[in-house]
Amino acid sequence: MKKGILSLSALLVGGMLSAQVVGTDTTTNAPLNSAQNILSGNGGKQIIIGGYGQIDYNQPLNDTASANGKMDVHRMVIFMGYKFNDKVQFVTEIEMEHVKELYVEQAFLNYQISNPINFRAGLMLIPMGIINEYHEPTTFNGVERPNLDGKIIPTTWREMGAGFAGNIDNLSLKYQAYVVNGFLGYDGSGKLRGSDGFRKGRQKGAESTFNTPNFTTKLDFYGIKGLKLGASAYFGNTQSTAFDGLPNNDTLGLKAQADSTTVGLAMFGFDARYTYKALHIRGQFVKSSISNVAEYNAYTGSDLGSSMLGYYGEVGYDVLSLIKKDAKEKLILFGRYEYYDTHDATPNGTIKNDSYARTDMTFGVTYKVSNGAAFKADYQIFDNKADGNTPSNQINLGVGVWF
Amino acid sequence: MRKIWIVIFVGLSFLSFDLPKSAIKKIDKVITSLWPEQVVEKKAINLSNKQLENFKDNKLYQLINNKKSIGYLYLTKARSKITYFDYMIIFNTDLSIKKIKVLIYREEQGGEIGSKRWLKQFEGKSSANEMKFGDDIQNISGATISARSMTNGVGKATKQVQNLKLQGVFN
Fold first, then answer.
1. What is the mean pLDDT of residues B66-78?
2. Do residues A238 and A209 lie in contact, with contact meaning Cβ atoms separated by under 8 Å?
């Protein structure tokens, strides 16, 4: 069955890629998929198929010992969008990670009630930070996504939910507000941990456990030319299988026990993207405050932190624009500094692990040979605050596509 | 006695609009804001069959006040990620862009292009200006597909109306 799905997906992708006409719509110059109009019914209904791919080669550098590199088709995602009518759309992304793991990244129905009000429900991306919503490999610098987004935000963060979204043109404001399912903190054992916070608690819409709703909201402002500012918030308790089947008249104190298998999360994120001609700047700040962690760690034996903090700043410049005025390609030189600490604070009973206070520096180049295709190369230096830690280095090479 | 001037629609030419009422309301609101307290008529422009072929689904109207031409109204569509959006361009008589407004945005993302401030970038430009996306016209992060699509569409529209002028359509 798994093999069948793999070969079917491979055929689909292969078919799309080989059938791909690298042409443009003469009216809009928008990149055209030959797969557009693949299913055309009455009234011009059509399914749009696209996708993105991230292919990596990571090579740690080591002075004292040989280190194996890793080559990975990290992500191959198929996007499908179907327009039922002017008001109703279905959007889905099916993802193959590391060639073996099949996931659904998004699957939601969007209903436009009026122009600034859309109602949507299904499996959705949590609007926190830049990368979680915008992670097509040609839209960010560096072969890999920033570790801040991986460890603290934990991208790709998507859960089942429902809510509202829209653009308010007069204010140049985009809003999103959803009620969503939360992380699974406990399923017989604790899933949350010090090194990567909530990452292992992501349910991803796969037969997820739900016992308490979470809430997330984001505002994006784009009224200043070239600048996009975002502010996100996330609140809620984690889910736990320990509540399942608990009698309403709890005389044995089981509820208190179950409570120890959950934590409360309040996460705030601020992000900014600024582009001016050849200059690209972005920055992000995230802070998570976690409650009930002392009880959770005591019960599960975990080392989850009670506060997580991270930020990064990145500058990129398209140097090709200096050499060739009307260049269709881009050669972006960039540098990024990241700091992320999943043990920004720890509760009583949990020792702060200094190796969790990490800094990553990434320097590299993104060679965009087309709007949707890039060759990437970068050099990373990883460091942390543990006593006597020596920084480790890594070279990454990669290919990113988005069509 | 103060007369209240309103925008009136020239009946027959108006029936050829296949936009919903809400979109038509938007068009009129823009016209009223640009020419307050003036009577503005919309007159469909006659194009030859060959010109219509090139024009495709776009619509072009002359805007008239007191029997004088005061501008042109251009209605068109452009692609967003999985569908398309409708927008309007109001041209000055010299064919420079006076105002652009998104009439119907259907897609669940990319709606940032409706921002008045972003659309201001196009004002005053004509076929004589290069409107290079990411350079002359700044992108909006997160709405790149629609922003690029709009930019290319507007560039094409300015060239199209300039061509029609050279063919004597506006005389």
1. 94
2. no
